[in-house]
Design a protein that fits this description.
Length: 252
């Protein structure tokens, strides 16, 4: 009787393919949730799951900037076998929130083997729902900055997952960076750009912006040329002209 019970428990352990809500940290992460993968360690409160038989913990930080962010980036390599691999966000507090926006940088090289790279969400880590975004076209897909709306939320907690489903040898590799999950932006006030006597250009921070593109011109009615990209709401320039005009564009 003891031997049979041991064998049954062993089989159950080997066939587990998912984590449940109770397996993740109990605390809720407040929005916005930002992850830029700034170091060599896999980020705390993020989780990876794989179908039984697939290699685990395939999403690994690498010192690279293939898709436009600053090092590090998160890379996932191919592995033999078919199934599902998910990179799962922290547990997000969505109590009283009907919609969130997920934005990220990504790239993936797909072979013609039917692998799908898609964005999903769940409230319990059991039932997963597809969003409007996916990649399945063979070839190298570098989509740049992607924004995906997830609407009609009706749960106190939500998880977001980047899912690879199908033949896991169907890709050369996948890369993610600059993940930002936030409330939708419905209307933005036009920020006032100020220029100090020392040449410091500054403006009010725009909610959920990840960076700002700065354009300058000698003529306020002429063409504005690109000057710089910055992450903070200020930029130091050398004033060499009697007059200089600037425009600032927020990047999401």
């Amino acid at each position: 009787m003891t031997r049979k019970l041991f064998l049954l428990m062993l089989i159950v352990t080997l066939t587990v393919i998912s984590l449940y809500a109770s397996d993740l940290p109990p605390r809720l992460s407040e929005l916005p949730c930002t992850q830029n993968f700034d170091g060599p360690e896999f980020p705390a409160d993020w989780t990876q799951t794989s179908t039984a038989g697939l290699a685990i913990d395939r999403w690994v930080p690498y010192y690279s900037n293939f898709i436009g962010g600053d090092p590090y980036e998160l890379h996932c390599n191919s592995t033999p076998g078919s199934g599902i691999t998910r990179l799962i966000s922290p547990q997000l507090n969505t109590a009283g929130i009907a919609e969130i926006t997920v934005q990220f940088l990504h790239a993936i090289g797909l072979y013609d083997l039917g692998l799908v790279f898609k964005l999903q969400y769940s409230h319990n880590l059991i039932d997963w729902y597809d969003t409007a975004w996916s990649q399945s076209t063979p070839g190298y897909n570098q989509g740049g900055l992607v924004r995906v709306a997830i609407a009609n939320l009706d749960a106190p907690a939500t998880y977001v997952a980047w899912t690879l489903e199908g033949d896991q040898m169907g890709m050369e590799g996948a890369v993610l960076d600059n993940i930002h999950i936030h409330l939708p932006v419905t209307e933005l006030d036009t920020p006032e750009v100020l220029i100090s006597d020392s040449g410091l250009v500054s403006w009010d921070a725009v909610p959920y912006a990840i960076s700002y593109d700065i354009y300058g011109s000698d003529d306020p009615y002429g063409a504005f040329d690109f000057e710089a990209t910055v992450e903070d709401p200020f930029w130091q320039t050398d004033i060499t002209q009697a007059r200089k005009f600037y425009r600032v564009k927020a990047i999401y």
